[in-house]
Amino acid sequence: MGRAAGLGLGGAMLLALLAGCSAEDVGKKFGHFGWPGPGISLQAHKMYDLWIASTVAALVVGVGVWGLIFWCVIRYRKRGEELPVQTRFNMPMEVLYTVTPVLIVAVLFYYTAIVQTDVDKLSKNPDQVVQVTAFKWNWEFDYRDGIGTEAKTVASTVGSSDVIPILVVPTHEKIRFEEISKDVIHSFWVPELLFKRDVMPGNVRNVFEVTLDKEGRYVGRCAELCGTYHAFMNFELVAVTSAEFDKFLAAKTAGQSTQDALTSIGKAPYATTTQPFNTRRQTHSWNQSGATEAAGK
Fold it and tell me: Where in this chain does the record put each Cytochrome oxidase subunit II copper A binding domain (predicted)?
């Protein structure tokens, strides 16, 4: 029992040591425990903190369990033919290993529910509304003047096999994404958002909001197997300042292309994080005459 108490004390000291660091500091030291990083939105930061905290808690529990296992292996290894004292039950230990897991699960559930509620929260008046339309096998981004189906589109960006679609959004503003699909299930995913959501066909409009706090260019992908060219269904998210976004949207509203509008705010006109893939839709050189000749042989 004394050694078990020592292990518990060691775990408590480890928790106290880690508590002095932020989740991002701990994540950097251990490679973010498999995540891309702290993310680029306020919602992503909360999910990241939950991930790091739950992983650290799991490691502390794991170290304690492993320590007890190895202690039992060494302490009660066979030293002769005489059996050690057999204990039928130990009430304090049984209470401990029953109550402790329940408390751990309850705490994890509590914070998970809080973070999930915050991630799914919608505001009544978002600053920007973007309708995301997925189709085989590309994206259309429509900037809307309001929420819901009654709103009107003021500017659009549509991708093609030759040009990666670019989604320009402002930082430090609430951005609502309203997703629809023209055919099958797709999935809107920007890894740095630490979040993805399916785009459903029919009359289903999946809606979520984010508030970006970091400028930059980030690759976006379809994360749902949707057909032959699913792997080529990329886009790029470009996060700019509010002033730059207003200038960009004004240029788009005036009729400029997405590339010209990006140039007007001093940004690269084409995607820099990804490039169009060869979709192999060209006509095969082995044409009908070649097939006929091969059949004759």
Answer: 125-251
